[in-house]
Amino acid sequence: MSEWAQKIRGGDLRALARAATGVENRDPAALALLRELEETPGHARIVGVTGPPGAGKSTLVDAMATALRSQGKTVAVIAVDPTSRITGGAILGDRIRMTQHHGDAGVFVRSMATRGSSGGLARATAGLVRLMDAAGRDYVIVETVGVGQDEIGIAGLAQVIIVVLVPGMGDDVQAIKAGIMEIADIFAINKSDQPGADRVEREIQMMLNLAPGRHPAIVRTVATESKGIDELLDLVGQASRPVLFAKSETLTIDHLGIAVNSITDAVPFYEILGLQVTHNENVPAEKVQVAILPTGDSRIELLEPTAPDSPISKFLEKRGPGLHHIALRVPDLHATIARLSESGARLLNEPREGAGGHVYVFVHPASTGGVLLELIQEPSN
Questions:
Q1: CATH 3.10.180.10 describes domain 252-377
Q2: Where in the chain do CATH 3.10.180.10 domains reside?
Q3: Which CATH class is domain 41-238?
Q4: Residues with Cβ < 8 Å from 142, sequence gap 6 or more?
Q5: pLDDT tens digits, one per residue of 12-49
Q6: Could you tell me the pTM of the whole model?
Q7: What is the DSSP secondary-structure string of 122-184?
């Protein structure tokens, strides 16, 4: 194990902070460190805390961290904030968060900016969660930016999701029920000492009556006085959901598929870059000839059609030569397919064998944000 990894395993907060910055900035050394640490994954319980602005999420997270520390548990808090237009960083930084935990090595607080990402999270949030888990934290609490009904990225990351609501929201409960209301494992009615707490609970119950089979818990809290926090943590210990991709699993780019009119004509350019074709293969199922050029841990695949009705022929006719698809390597293809199918993603084929012997499926661009996505699994997995 590298010295950097050893320091993190040993509880060195400076080493952990430096790794967190590197993961957020997609620094190759930090990402390599993350892969090294994940060879021996941790045991963290990943808790998402979300809800509309002003619900007291930060205060609630602070109270949860305090209670967990009293139990001897270690905690990492990842607080996602809006992005400053001046600095590009988080508007609310950890300088003003959880000041009572300053100097406590058992609580690691990290603020991160969304940097334009939607869903209530930042692009690097999942990486930081995996880092904190690998560092041996008992709990990782992810506090989202104040969200609306469609900002539910936390649903694919956390094992337990707390939706925080407060009295006085009125019809807001109904307005947001189509989004964050539907991902809750626990509803926390914070500031429940204020008038209107009963009404909020009734509205939640009415909403749940419209969704048979769902039984999220409801707990009342007053975070500023630590009331209801122990009950909330008891519920956190009981609730659990499957995460989209297991915390110890890392998705990697397997290859880029580039459609070309002629592999023979295209290869010389890549040879100038120092790349070499190591494998040529005909894939009858796709009516395509493939030339593979390794690039470190991934590769480029040049795709030449072998028939007029090949998907690559149709792509070339419509768009000309260029990027045809991106392929991601997944740890468990069939489990991933099942989760995507449940989410409504549009899959273009059943799992089948492709170039190099890997099993793959394609996901339609309409489900991926505009690019054809191939998900593959090596036979050895």
A1: yes
A2: 252-377
A3: alpha beta
A4: 46, 47, 48, 49, 78, 80, 121, 125, 129, 154, 157, 158
A5: 999 999 999 998 887 888 888 988 887 777 889 999 99
A6: 0.63
A7: -TTHHHHHHHHHHTT-SEEEEEPPS--TT--GGGGT-SEEEEEE-TT-TTHHHHHTTTGGGS-
